């Protein structure tokens, strides 16, 4: 008989941390997986359409989807894989949407061979990118793949925020030498160069460093919301830094979609001073949730933190949009994922 360790997952497929999904993992399998926690891919690997033409209007959405592997960030040793969906109108616009995914979600070919991933294949990174392309048809859509996928399941955004193997973050204030904003800027800059986009973002900031009309919309889903939370922690310092202030000022909207992670707190930002800074920044804040995250009695702090987040932003006069989806339906992982299409 094979020795099996029954493990209650600290997060559902979307990173919710509610233990709804349990799995039996063999000790041998765990040991093998521990040796290959990092997801690595070759930067020379072919993209889905690495030579996508500028005349994108004649191409199908799939043909406009480009995979960019091992794109370096602020530090060359910190890299993330990216998916880029070019807008239907071609490369003329300068609006960009950046999406951070949750647990389980990965490239289609990797999800298809994982027992825990195959059943959620409709929420692969490629399909999410296409869905976002319909939501934002005139923007460049970037999907950032987490640099670690522990046990092929738990996404960890440690390139943006210090996190453990399950992806639970340890947030920190702004640092001029590292952080989420610096890493994102470098990723976009190198990604635009790799994709041969016109007028790419410069890797270093300055007074006139953004293309005319450049704007950023940031979207975090489930575990991916930890990146947005870290950016809120950095916001005051980044706005005061001449190297980053224009980039931060270009962020027009931030979407929190059913945020969740396996830590026991800080699922939502609750520090009043940080939320006051967010409100004063003028960024439009969108908080979309489902009962799966905010009504789970086993993780009651998530709902409380979400309520505090909303109350404080309203108090500070933030540009706020809030929505509870599937309110009259039973809490489910399916509806947790569906928020990606419904927000």
Label this structure with key terms.
Rossmann fold; two-stranded antiparallel ribbon; 343 residues; 30% helix; alpha/beta; eight-stranded mixed sheet; globular
Show unreliable segments. 1-12, 14-57
What is the approximate shape?
globular
* Total number of distinct structural domains: 1
Over all CA atoms, what is the radius of gyration? 19 Å
Query: What's the total number of strands?
Result: 12
- Strand numbers in spatial order across the main sheet: 3-4-6-5-9-10-11-12
Name the helix and strand elements from N-terminus to C-terminus, one letter apiece: EEHEEEHHHEEEHEHHEHEHHEH
Q: Quaternary state, please?
A: single chain
CATH class: Alpha Beta
Q: Specify the biggest β-sheet.
A: 8 strands, mixed
What is the fourth-level CATH superfamily? Answer: Alpha/Beta hydrolase fold, catalytic domain
Q: What is the correct CATH architecture? A: 3-Layer(aba) Sandwich
Query: Helicity level, as a percent range?
Result: 25-40%
Structural commentary:
Residues 38-62 are annotated as: Disordered. Residues 38-54 have a biased composition (Polar residues). InterPro entries: C2orf69_mit. The structure is a single chain. The protein is of the alpha/beta class. It has one domain: Alpha/Beta hydrolase fold, catalytic domain (Rossmann fold). It has helices spanning 27-34, 108-112, 115-118, 125-135, 180-194, 225-240, 245-249, 272-280, 291-294, 300-315, 333-342; strands spanning 4-8, 22-26, 65-72, 79-85, 95-100, 140-144, 148-150, 154-156, 215-221, 251-257, 284-289, 319-324. An 8-stranded mixed β-sheet has the order 3-4-6-5-9-10-11-12, sandwiched between helices. A hairpin with a 3-residue loop joins β7 and β8. α6 (225-240) crosses α8 (272-280).
């Amino acid at each position: 008989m094979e020795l099996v360790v029954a493990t209650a997952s600290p997060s559902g497929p979307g990173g919710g941390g509610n233990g709804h999904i349990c799995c039996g993992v063999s000790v041998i399998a765990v040991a093998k997986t521990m040796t290959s926690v990092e997801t690595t891919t070759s930067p020379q690997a072919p993209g889905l359409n690495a030579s996508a033409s500028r005349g994108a209007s004649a191409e199908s959405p799939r043909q406009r989807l480009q995979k960019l592997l091992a794109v370096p960030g602020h530090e060359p040793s910190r890299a993330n894989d990216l998916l880029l969906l070019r807008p239907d109108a071609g490369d003329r616009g300068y609006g960009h949407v950046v999406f951070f995914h949750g647990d389980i979600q990965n490239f289609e070919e990797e999800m298809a061979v994982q027992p825990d991933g195959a059943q959620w294949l409709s929420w692969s990174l490629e399909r999410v990118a296409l869905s976002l392309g319909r939501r934002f048809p005139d923007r460049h859509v970037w999907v950032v793949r987490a640099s670690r996928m522990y046990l092929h399941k738990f996404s960890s955004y440690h390139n943006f925020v210090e996190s453990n193997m399950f992806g639970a973050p340890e947030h920190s204030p702004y640092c001029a030498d590292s952080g989420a904003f610096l890493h994102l800027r470098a990723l976009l800059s190198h990604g635009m160069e790799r994709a041969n986009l016109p007028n790419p973002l410069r890797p270093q900031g300055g007074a006139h460093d953004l293309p005319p009309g450049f704007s950023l919309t940031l979207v975090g889903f489930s575990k991916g919301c930890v990146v947005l939370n870290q950016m809120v922690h950095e916001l005051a310092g980044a706005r005061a830094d001449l190297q980053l202030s224009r980039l931060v000022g270009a962020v027009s909207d931030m979407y929190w979609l059913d945020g969740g992670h396996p830590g026991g707190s800080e699922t939502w930002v609750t520090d009043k001073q940080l939320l006051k800074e967010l409100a004063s920044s003028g960024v439009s804040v969108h908080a979309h949730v489902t009962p799966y995250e905010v009504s789970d009695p086993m993780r009651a702090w998530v709902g409380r933190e979400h309520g505090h987040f909303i109350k404080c932003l309203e108090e500070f006069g933030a540009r706020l949009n809030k929505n509870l989806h599937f309110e009259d339906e039973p809490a489910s992982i399916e509806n947790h994922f569906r928020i990606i299409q419904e927000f």
